[in-house]
Structure formats: C-alpha cells, structure tokens
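Render Metallophosphoesterase in 3D.
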Amino acid sequence: MSISIRILFFIVIVLLHIFIYFTLFKNVSANPVIKHLGKFIVIANLLCIVFFLRFYHGHINPIIYTLMSSSVGIFWISFNIALIVFVLSWGISLSFGYLTLQQWQGKILMLAWISIFVLIALSFHINAKQPSIIEQTIQIQNLKQPINIAHLSDIHIGVLMDEHKVADIVRKTNELSPDIIVLTGDIVDSYSSLSFRAIEQLGKLKSKYGIYYVLGNHEYYYDTYNILRYIQKLGITTLVNQSMILRNLGINISGVADLVGEKIIQDTFLRPNLSQATKYNIAYFPTILLSHQPKTIKFLNNEKIDLVLSGHTHGGQIFPFNFFVLIDQPFLSGLHEFSYNDNKSQIYISEGVGWWGMPMRLFSRRQINFLHLVPA
C-alpha cells in the first residue's frame, strides 16, 4: 500500500472516530467527566487500530493482539450503530422538530449503547464456536463417479490460530473421510518460522486421493517460498499455476496463484496465470479450479472450467461489511452459476474456517465445507 493511500486511510479512520464521538458520546450526558471519558474511549480505540495495523505482521503477545485487533471490530460495529442513530435523529428532527428530538435523544442513545454491547458480545461468541460442517451437493458434467471434497479456506494460521485450534480443524476434517482435501488460500498468515508448530498440524490431514493447496493473498505478505516449501514437506501438493491429473477419478485439479501476485511481487512464478494452470489438463476430464479469490472468474478466457473453489470473502465476517466485499467480489458465499465466453460453470465460495484480525464474526460462521460432487 502506497504512503498516500495509507495517509488517506488514516484520515478517514480519524474522521469516522470523530463522527462516532459526536453521535454517541457528546450528548449522552451533560457531565463533563462523562464527555472526557467518551473522548478517551474513542481516542484509545483509534490508537489500538493504528497499533494493530502497524504490528499486524509481527509476533505479538496473544492477549495484546486480541485487545488491539478487537478494536477494529468494535469500531466497525460502533460506526454502523452511530450511522443509524444519526439518520434516525435527523429524520425525527425534520419530521417532528428539534424539541421532540431532545425528548427522545436519551432513549435513542441508550438503545444504541445496548445494541453495541450486545452485538460486540455476540460477535465474540459466534467466532468462538467450533466451525460448522456445511454440506453441498454439486452436479458436474462428465464426472465418472461421485467424489467427496473437504474444502478448507482462510485458516489464517498466526498469533491466535495456534497449533491447538488447527489440530481441532484437522480432526473435524478427517472425521469426514474425504476423497480429496483442498486448501484454498490464506492458510498461513504469519512467517513460517513463527507458526511452524501450527503449520505442522496440516500434515495430519488424511484423504484418499491427496491434499491440494493454493496461495491466498496473505501468504504473499510473508516468506512465500518458505511457506510453500514447508507445506510441500508435509506431503501436501502445492499448485502454483499448475495442475494435478487424477486419472483414477477422471478429473483435473488446477490451482492458480492469487491475484495479489500481479500487484505486489515481481517474481513471474508467483503471478496468476490461468492458461498455464490448465495447459496440460485432459480435455475430456472435468476441471476443478482452486483459486483463493472468487473474482478470478472474471479473467477466464478459453480455459475449460467445470467448478471453481474459492474463499477470501469470510462471508463478510462482520455485517454489514458483506456489501463492501460484494463491490470487489462477484459473490459472497455458497454455490453460484456463472458464464464466461459462452461457457457455463459453477463456483463454490467458503466463508472460511478461521478469521482475519479480530476474533469476531457477526452473521457469518466459521465453516468446514464438505462438497459432494456427483455426475450430472
């Protein structure tokens, strides 16, 4: 991210915190002590966000990391409630006059603060739950036999996603007895040397016909080649613009490097290349494309793709961030059909088995996706 973009981002975050203070704190009480306390809370949350974003890629104490990262979720929830309060207050003032607004303002703010506390607590509770097993049957043309695929995405191995949490994910996945396991990016969100014990747990994944991994955007922020080598040592097949042809099942599994590789890296090997990824596929076998970001489908040309498996979106993670995700990505989660160059295909998007940053989710769930591919 360029310096100018960072400065602009910082200015926006500051302005939004000022908006939160004037909407939720300034009129909550006439007592100057309460007002100063409100200023302190807003400034403290802003500083926590700055600290978290500055040291996100380092190794931070888990307790400090939780406190710092949670400030992002608290800010987002508070801002949306503040926006609702602002619009509601403005509407009451225009419709019934300022005196009526004065009479209702205390009740509105009380309801707003109750909503903020409830939503924050709920978001921590939802994220703390064990990931759900989400099953989906998908019909595939020219498929020889049914195939069960365990789809894991966005584990984000790092400070909070430690070896114990990864071991639980591995255990739940193995209990499904999948034919194939796919890891569709953002599996590692740390330097490999700092999280090697958690990464090692992935080596305990078990499937009949292999485990296949593609890079997500977060692996590019660290020692990408070391991460790839470490995962390969665990017996997991890494697909960087490559394919694996499973003749016994009659399918091609192709994996493309993440789109962020076009922007932040000079190494051509780590840049996405769809034509290279599918170059040696057997034409009459169905092709499953592993791509971290769903919007990869916008770049399909003549490649024959029957199913795309993606992650990245986290289902929005904290509502209503869903709508911002949909500005950048074509779909949010689940199974969808799409067309490209007169071809029809399908894409399945996981909401992720982990989380980014703050250990909070609101109206989205951590999930392990179990896909039942059947002949159409």
